[in-house]
Amino acid sequence: MLEKLKQEVYQANLELPQRGLIKYTWGNVSGFDEATQLFVIKPSGVDYDEMSPDDMVVCNLNCEVVEGNLNPSSDMPTHAVLYKSFEGIGSVVHTHSPWATVWAQAGMDVPAMGTTHADTFYGAVPCARFLTAEEVNSNYEYETGKLIVETFEDKNIKPNEVPAVLLQGHAPFVWAKDCAHAVMNAVVLEEVCKMNLFSKQLNQEAPALPQEILDKHYERKHGKNAYYGQN
Amino acid sequence: MLEKLKQEVYQANLELPQRGLIKYTWGNVSGFDEATQLFVIKPSGVDYDEMSPDDMVVCNLNCEVVEGNLNPSSDMPTHAVLYKSFEGIGSVVHTHSPWATVWAQAGMDVPAMGTTHADTFYGAVPCARFLTAEEVNSNYEYETGKLIVETFEDKNIKPNEVPAVLLQGHAPFVWAKDCAHAVMNAVVLEEVCKMNLFSKQLNQEAPALPQEILDKHYERKHGKNAYYGQN
Amino acid sequence: MLEKLKQEVYQANLELPQRGLIKYTWGNVSGFDEATQLFVIKPSGVDYDEMSPDDMVVCNLNCEVVEGNLNPSSDMPTHAVLYKSFEGIGSVVHTHSPWATVWAQAGMDVPAMGTTHADTFYGAVPCARFLTAEEVNSNYEYETGKLIVETFEDKNIKPNEVPAVLLQGHAPFVWAKDCAHAVMNAVVLEEVCKMNLFSKQLNQEAPALPQEILDKHYERKHGKNAYYGQN
Amino acid sequence: MLEKLKQEVYQANLELPQRGLIKYTWGNVSGFDEATQLFVIKPSGVDYDEMSPDDMVVCNLNCEVVEGNLNPSSDMPTHAVLYKSFEGIGSVVHTHSPWATVWAQAGMDVPAMGTTHADTFYGAVPCARFLTAEEVNSNYEYETGKLIVETFEDKNIKPNEVPAVLLQGHAPFVWAKDCAHAVMNAVVLEEVCKMNLFSKQLNQEAPALPQEILDKHYERKHGKNAYYGQN
């Protein structure tokens, strides 16, 4: 079942090390099928060299395995919560990409300092708080998903406008309408985290991007009258 | 038309990711034909793997498409303004190369701190101010070009002696007599931005290059009595 | 003798430059055979291109060469002490990987600041003090091993829970149950050292990972009820 | 003439970009023939793809071209002065490798902070002062060589024990008994410059390597009783 999506998810997982986002098996990509309300995710801890599209695991939004002989990624419940809560997203990516993780470990939101950021994220990428001991010890990965949703609600951020989050002391989760775009958003986040860190070191007073430039760049790619690309 | 130039522009665009200046489609190179006063530019948002020389778009200095089935790069009007205003340049490159973008986000000129800089740029590479809300909301990409020209006039910098600019909160534009040299200048700028950042961190009092060494290195490559290379 | 282990040790040594942990011959991997109480180690200063599995040197825990025509790595006695003192380890890796060496030169323990760390190291990776002049001038490499053991005893750290150490002014030693995991642990240490450095620069108050998250991540991979992977 | 040396010099020049020390043609390697007192050097500004061993230029210690159809590297006179002044060296390498250039631009000696340094350089790598206007305007490249020699004399450093120098505002020159070792020393310098920068950032009080460890590591590779490697 869902053979085409399995192929997409498999390819997107391979893209993570190719794009320098992960080493070994430190990441996972899933893809969601709107029609069946099922999602396909990478198996846990399997070497990429030995992995095939058939090894992808199919799960439902109750965090149950529907098809597959292997254990799904241990982060599977986080993915499930995001698909259940964030309308319209078709793929979730988790990595420990180093520059984004640097910001996560610092416990800081990533401000919109430039147009590279504004082309993808309409405002700062939030950093969610540490999970509490209680959350950690009940159902860790599920609570992680809930915390992400809570963070977007509390800060009044629209997940389709800012498709990424950092988890304090952990690393990023990123999403998009499909796998290729979710991986791309993870690359953008990584690049922005690297550049913003050094811009702040170079000039402690470096300002955030003025609102009108943020609007302009986000809108020319994602707005109603977008004119970037061939559409 | 302009088949040879299309080939050059195509190749130079491919060189951007190969040299680590861009990821995905975050950059564009154009080339100018003096005889026809037309320029050739990359189409907007097309994957490099799927792009061919025939996909390049031909435009005139009034920002009109003269030939081509695809939309030109959304930054096309910036290129047009530069060709119209900066005499003798034959190619313009725009990237979001990370170290140059770090300086752009910091809103700082790149000082001439070493001979790597002086071999290409005869003095500091200026950082143009943020565009105003009015400029952003009228004809953003055209106004970007005008701001670059204004910056060089205000600071009394000769665009053929300092063939690059940073736009605050955005990224660099770079130029040269032809596509290969424009890409090379973009590489030099990127390298210099990386090195200068860390030289300043290592020694806050690190001085600019003395004028006579700046002169010497610039002149031995670009002066009347240049003796670098085989000419 | 020990042909299979020689092959593993050979492959693991080749992996060091492939994973960006070393340049030239600045590292060494050994593997221990529990049954014979012998270990196999890379020869000293031999180019990787010219090295074959048969060039690996077999040594005993008294630092004597048992088989092999080449000199063993000059760090061989350090490996011997670790195999003698740290029960259950099957491989030792030494590199001068740059980010770990940065921390070693700073003389600082690497704190557990994120889950990337906690997935492998159950707490801070200690930095052992400089060797004394007396230690340096008696039997340097052997004393290095003894100092590592002393460091773990003094700080009451279990070597199987924190399978790595930094030597002040020198570089890391890392270990694991087998060669592939020892190289992986060296990669984790390198990545963590890079990220922690910049997290601290971004936020001087960046906290260590809360104990419950450290426990959770370490236990889900290495604990009795581990559920990461396919076992 | 000197065909074997031309081949070595050619190969060593190709190694510079392969090892990440240079971009484009921003570096040069030469090799010295003791018997004839001639040296072979890369031509100036020729693309590496188009260069062959036959393009190497033969010069004498008076800075005259003895054989070759191309202009030698514009830095040729610096190489000549080093061969004339530093007894026993067989190769000189010049690069603008970024981390070494960072220190050169900062105008700072590179202290011996770790054993990676001590394995190659017996003490700090000195940074020579800016050339004076007079030196720049008389015979720049020749004066550069003289300044390097003066620096080693003034600081009482033996060029065979510390085979590298930084030129303030410029970049490193490195040497060794042959081309392969000169390139290796340039790689060591680059790595050490990167690591020391960040060690100092991590711990402003990070100490230099104690003298006895510096002695030990330098001597075990280069001393009378060296025991590193297979000799």
UniProtKB/TrEMBL annotation, chains A, B, C, D:
The keyword Signal does not apply. Residues 7-197 form the Class II aldolase/adducin N-terminal domain. Keywords: Isomerase, Metal-binding, Zinc. Its cofactor is Zn(2+). It comes from the Bacteria. InterPro entries: Aldolase_class_II_sugar_metab, Aldolase_II/adducin_N, Aldolase_II/adducin_N_sf. It is an enzyme of class 5 (isomerase). Its EC number is 5.1.3.4. It holds the Pfam family Aldolase_II. The keyword Transport does not apply. It catalyses: L-ribulose 5-phosphate = D-xylulose 5-phosphate. GO terms for molecular function: L-ribulose-phosphate 4-epimerase activity. NCBIfam families: PRK08193.1 (NF006047). Belongs to the aldolase class II family. AraD/FucA subfamily. This is L-ribulose-5-phosphate 4-epimerase.
